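Working notes for the structural subgroup meeting. M.R. asked for a predicted model of this chain before we commit to crystallization trials. I am recording the input and output together here so anyone reviewing the notebook later can reproduce the run.

Input as submitted:
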Amino acid sequence: MSRRYSRQHERQSDILGTRVLSGANYAADGVRNLMMTLDDLYGDKAPPRWLSTHPPSSDRVEYLEDLIETAGYNRYAYEGVTKHAQIQNRVKQLVKDDSESS
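Returned structure, recorded in C-alpha cell form:
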C-alpha cells in the first residue's frame, strides 16, 4: 500500500469520525481538537511527509475545520455528553444496588 493511499484513508476516517460525532449530537470538532493537540505535542517531531503514512496533523486540522464550517456542524453540542453522564449515573446506581443486595 502506498503512503499516499494510506493518507487518503486517514483523511476519510477523520471526515467520517467528524460526521458521526455531529450526527450523534456530540461537539463536531472532537477529532479536529485531537489533531491540534497532537500537532502541539509532536508537530516538530513528525517524519518527512514522503515517509509518513498519516497526513500531517496541521493538514488534518485544516481540512476538518473546513468540513465543520462548510457543513454547518455544531461544535458546541452537549447532548451526547448529557446522555453519557446519565448512563454513568445509571451504572453507578446499578453497582450500588448490586453491592447492597450481596
